[in-house]
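Consider a concrete sample entry:
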Amino acid sequence: MASFLRRLQDTFAAPAPPAAAPAPPAVPPVMETVKETIKDTFVKHPYFPAESPIVGYLANEYNTLELVSLFAAGCAVIFACTYVTVKRAAWGPLSFLTASLIAKDHPLRHPFQIIVSLGQLYGDVLYYATSLFDEHLLGLSYSRPEAAYYWGYFVFMNAFWIVIPLILIIKSVNACTRAFTALNRAEKVLNGGIAKKQL
């Protein structure tokens, strides 16, 4: 019991006065210029003096352009991985379901056709965007240099997967619009007919 009371007393006792903070280590000259550039623009870290380097703190190690490019690359990886995961888990089964609904002329084919077509459109835009980003900004080309390969295979053959989903989306949206317009007209006629009978 005495040891428990001693531990309890030690826990709630007044803390010892803080020791003097050690002097910050010397900063290399290159690191100092990067730090001054970033410090004057937007980076403020509230827990340390501005003169002390934080080990592993990205703003101390890279310039702003490198940080932005690292962030953009990370976003692109997350974007691509998310799409690939959704495509494998959902788009295949949804495509088969949509095909069977189209074959049966089921009314639900239009919402599913819109969903699958939007997914296909998203994937093709992602494919074009990442490839063109790499080509124009990084100078990496994934096709042969001849114009026939670039315009024939890359642009033209993939354009089908933009045009066809757009046509299907427009057709499905028009079908949904016609269905809801007819439903609204029928409700107005029924409500008008019920109102006349009540008089």
